[in-house]
Model the fold of this input.
Amino acid sequence: MTAYDSLLAFSLAALLLTLTPGLDTALILRTACAEGGKKAFQAALGIDTGCFIWGALVALGLGALLAVSELAYTVLKICGAVYLSWLGLQLLLRPRESFSHSNGSIAAQGNWFLRGMLGNVLNPKMGIFYVSFLPQFIPAGHSPYIWTFILVSIHVAIGTMWSVTLILTTQFASAILKKNSVVKAMDRATGGLFLCFAAKLALSSR
Done:
């Protein structure tokens, strides 16, 4: 896979994954509804910062492992493929019936940037996901450090655009995400994507 192919494939995958309703989407919608667009954008910037923190941790550890150990690469590849397969099957076989973003009582005070960042950094699934997902888009012979940050930057850029879209169209987005058919379709599409990438990762070579 060439560098261009890697960037294109990752961008498409990141776009679909970002559009799939999840915890970050819920936080943005709840904050926009209860606190307004400014607070929601602060939360979005916090989420983005959390992605970069995880990216730095993954880049340092991933780069060191891949550079010195064929065994570490193989173990990481197998674990990543298994993890992505498990996620994919869960989404395909047990898609959610609904996506709830209850507006509940949210205190007006508080640092929403910090809340968004900590919500991301303290979620170990984010780190596991990056370790499992990013390596297959790093072209052979290229620096894992540099490419990890490039891929994370693409993910963050797409995520930021999605957050801004949600904030600007809060009521419309909320209505769409309440439809069971939409949530099921997105979960199943993402599940199929995960299985494809799991197979690709399992068959890849260093």
Notes: The chain has one domain: 3-13+22-100+112-203. Residues 43 and 112 are 5 Å apart (CA to CA). Residues 103-109 have pLDDT under 50 and may be disordered.
